[in-house]
Amino acid sequence: MYETTYHRPSSVDEAAALFSKGKEAKYLAGGHTLIPVMKQRLAAPSDVIDLARIKELVGIEASGDTLTIKAATPHHDVATSGPTQKAIPALSYLASLIGDPAVRHRGTIGGSIANNDPAADYPAALLALGATVKTNKRSIAADDFFKGLFATALEDGEIITAVSFPVPAKAGYSKFPHPASRFALTGVFVAKTKSGDVRVAATGASQSGVMRLPAIEQPLSANWSASALDNLTIPAAGLLSDIHGSADYRANLIKVMAQRAVTAAG
Fold first, then answer.
1. Which CATH number belongs to the domain containing residue 135 in this structure?
2. Core vs surface per residue 113-125: b (16+ CB within 10 A) or e
């Protein structure tokens, strides 16, 4: 690793100030991406600014029809949180599937969506639930936040502070995990809003990262059941194809995972 200066700020404002002073500064959340990249000498930040211990960035709050998860909240807390299990049980279930216990106790929701790995779980939930990403500068709708592989709408130095989820009428998540990394080979999150709208998103399948699935949303809007997708064929165009699964295989997984997610949602 290259030489770097480690900072542990106590507030979001202090973290942002440290970033602005650094020549090549990077924020650290759970560290599951930044630290390995630094070890491989693919990144050499002048300053590493640790956000994990900022108290205002940790916690889960349920208020009315909204669930708010602060950015440095670990996956384990989301998985075991009473407010999350009551408001959006599918989100708790999703968090329980991430990595292994060590990853879940250290990794954070903010770090996950800021990195926007194409096989990460949370982006599918944000997109399907119509969440809002809150930063130290503004609020960004999930539909506008994810910009492609490892790309987001975040500006240089901008800090995610929380994610706000509208509580749905129904929601479910199902994924086919890679046996080693536990990332989603393909994962599908389905949600039905309290107004009756259906939103579906897939992770791990598209060449462009997390994506909405109108082809699944339409039949589910007419008939919220797994059987509504029985005769559906998902095109393989634009889907990932690698040693773990072809585009055709992932196309089939999208349909199967969607059906399982609908069944789980009830």
1. 3.30.465.10
2. bbbbbbbbbbbbb
pLDDT of residue 2: 72
> Within this chain, do residues 154 and 86 fall inside the same structural domain, yes or no?
yes
* pTM (predicted TM-score): 0.96
Q: State whether 122 and 93 are in the same domain.
A: yes
CA atoms of 6 and 213, how far apart (whole Å): 42
pLDDT below 70 — which residues of the chain? 1
The span from the CA of 51 to the CA of 8, in Å, is 7
Q: How many helices (H) and strands (E) does the chain have?
A: 11, 14
Distance CA 231, CA 78 (A): 35
- Domain holding 62, by residue range, is 55-166
Of the three residues 111, 145, 166, the one that is the final residue of a domain is: 166
Q: Which long-range contacts (CB under 8 A, 24 or more apart) does 76-84 make?
A: 76/101, 76/104, 76/105, 78/109, 79/104, 84/60
Give the CATH number of the domain where residue 211 resides. Answer: 3.30.390.50
What residues form DSSP beta bridges with 146? 152
Co-location of 153 and 217 in the same domain = no
